[in-house]
Design a protein that fits this description.
- The chain is built from eleven helices and no strands.
- By secondary structure, it is an all-alpha fold.
- It folds into two domains: 126 residues, Four Helix Bundle (Hemerythrin (Met), subunit A) (Up-down Bundle); 97 residues, Helix Hairpins, CATH 1.10.287.70.
- α9 packs across α10 and α9 runs antiparallel to α11.
- It is extended and about 70 Å long.
């Protein structure tokens, strides 16, 4: 029975019609659950929708948990312990937590959980083939991407340290300098913190050029890997 449940709730294939229907049903539930987030008013219909969808999400979460050993074939003995800490399991749990506010509306901590309703949209990623392909690319290129992340972290730290020394009046704390370095790295430039001295502006210009180069590295790696992944999938379908 658990094996049949696992075959249904996992991403569908062309041979399993019930699994495809289940995926479509879950996608509809996710999309419907997001609709109330576009309104400030709390309509009665939204309350019923939220309760129904939460029940569906709880059942889906429990079904995936009790069939985790079929997903983690290499770690069957600890699969039920590992599953709650996986990416999608955490997203599922964050989508369910807002329902706890109904248990005690006066509990301030639970009121904060309402913000996690927005996490429901991330549940759609489970049914996205493009996202699955990107995750596969990240796993294959993790060494190259790790090197780029290390380079970016070093750039942020060094730029922040240098700017914190040459612009003491512009940055009250070191965190302000780190914030400026991150904004410069991403070439966003909000303009709320900026250098005013000539040497500070020179450092800022150099950091901007470095930021463009660093941001381009992971983009190129992921793009090339994604194209290779798409080509590999196409060859598998042809074979």
């Amino acid at each position: 029975m658990r094996r049949k449940i696992y075959d249904i709730i996992e991403i569908s294939n062309h041979q399993n019609i019930i699994s495809k229907l289940y995926d479509c049903f879950m996608i509809v539930c996710i999309v419907v659950s997001i609709i109330p987030l576009f309104f400030k008013q709390n309509y009665i219909a939204f309350s019923y929708i939220d309760k129904f969808v939460v029940v569906v999400f709880i059942i889906d979460y429990l079904l995936r948990w009790i069939t985790a050993d079929y997903k983690f074939t290499k770690f069957k003995k600890v699969s039920f312990v590992l599953y709650p800490f996986t990416f999608f399991a955490i997203i599922d749990l964050l989508s369910i937590l807002p329902a706890l506010t109904a248990l005690n509306s006066g509990f301030k901590l639970l009121r904060l959980i309402r913000m996690t309703k927005a996490f429901k949209i991330f549940k759609l990623l489970r049914y996205s083939k493009s996202f699955t392909a990107i995750i596969s690319v990240i796993k294959k290129e993790k060494k190259a991407l790790s090197a780029v992340c290390f380079l970016a972290g070093g750039y942020i730290l060094i730029s922040a340290l240098v700017m914190f020394q040459v612009e003491p009046d512009s940055f009250d704390t070191f965190f302000d300098a780190v914030y400026w370095a991150v904004v410069t790295l991403t070439t966003v430039g909000y303009g709320d913190i900026y250098p005013v001295s000539d040497i500070g502006r020179i450092v800022s210009m150099f950091s901007s050029f470095m930021g463009i180069a660093i941001v381009a590295l992971p983009t190129g790696i992921i793009t090339a890997g994604y194209m290779n992944e798409i080509e590999a999938q196409k060859q598998d379908r042809d074979n």
